[in-house]
Amino acid sequence: SLDANFFDESYTVAGSTGFLVWEGSLALLSILQRELASSSGGGDSSGPVSALLRSRRVLELGSGTGLLGLAVAAGLGARVLLTDLPPVVTDVLAPNIARNAASATTSATAVTAPSAAAWAAGCGGGVAVGSQGGAASCLALDWTRSVEAQCSGSAAWDVTQTEVILAAETVWLQELVEPFVATVTALMRFCSQSDGDGNSNGGSGSGNCKRPACLLVFRERAVASSETFASAKALLDCFAAHNVFPTTILEQPSAQSSEHMVRVLSLTLRE
Questions:
Q1: Per-residue model confidence as pLDDT tens digits over 177-233
Q2: If you count Cβ atoms within 10 Å of the first and of the last residue's Cβ in the chain, which end, N or C, has fewer?
Q3: Distance of alpha carbon 122 from the chain centroid
Q4: What does pLDDT average to over the chain?
Q5: Which residues make Cβ contacts (< 8 Å) with residue 238, sequence separation at least 6?
Q6: What number is the average pLDDT over the span 164-179?
Q7: CA angle 70, 73, 74 (to 5 degrees)
Q8: Could you tell me whether strands 134-140 and 79-84 are parallel, antiparallel, or unpaired per DSSP bridges?
Q9: 3-state DSSP call for residue 98?
Q10: What does the CA dihedral 210, 74, 10, 8 come to, rounded to 10 degrees?
Q11: SS3 94
């Protein structure tokens, strides 16, 4: 059968995989589940991954079905803006957010393009998800286009309020490495949060601006002879060229291939 989005202007082979749930998302969900279980069982108050995401303003790249972003909103009280290519946003993300909204009357059209103030505040323009104060909304974001251009003018949301960029197994083809890294780096530079005195830095990067970190889950697929799959080395080398450097939070064997690893990294921009 023919993919209904085949003739869409933004259709790509890579983008068509947004209709699937990938191992990276499942791995991070499993990690979050263990951390939350440990916390509720009298263990540490919060694990390293849940601590990074809890009650934060999160922008997720390559959200796909929205499973991970919705879980972060529902379980950790985060305010999540889920992004992907237009067909994925329209056909998958918006309906899935509406299905998981705290209000049973929410429609798919109500979860797109929240206002800047509403997303920063947490809920309006998007929808409440779960019982922990979380909220979710969605927006189309194309990695091959300028972040600033997509975040200005008709885009009715304030990306400068982002505290964490989330991406789980979004880069698996070599052709995706450069646009993905460029998008993450552009978001890091474009985003700013208030300084300790409550003063906004307006995205200029001046003063005491705190750049958002990127929580990245990468599942190795490449072998030495790969001409198609992106390797962790190629991805991290590209990030390094943009002055973005990783800290490993944890790594574990892939459930699908014992020869490969799933790595959870925190990326920061150094300037």
A1: 999 999 999 999 988 654 444 444 444 444 456 799 999 999 988 777 777 888 999
A2: N
A3: 16
A4: 80
A5: 177, 178, 181
A6: 93
A7: 85
A8: parallel
A9: helix
A10: -160
A11: helix
Burial string for 78-104 (b: 16+ CB within 10 Å, else e) reads bbbbbbbbbbbbbbbbbbbbbebbeee
Residues in the chain: 271
* Chain centroid, CA 93 distance in Å: 13
Output the pTM of the full model: 0.82
At 225, list the tokens.
Answer: 């002879």
Tokens of 238: 């590209």
Q: Is the pLDDT of residue 29 over 90?
A: yes
Query: What integer pLDDT is reported at residue 242 of this predicted model?
Result: 97
Measure the CA–CA gap between 170 and 127, rounded to whole angstroms. 25
Cβ–Cβ under 8 Å, residues 249 and 264: yes
Q: Tokens representing 248?
A: 């490993």
Instruction: Look at residue 124 and tell me whether its pLDDT is greater than 80.
Output: no
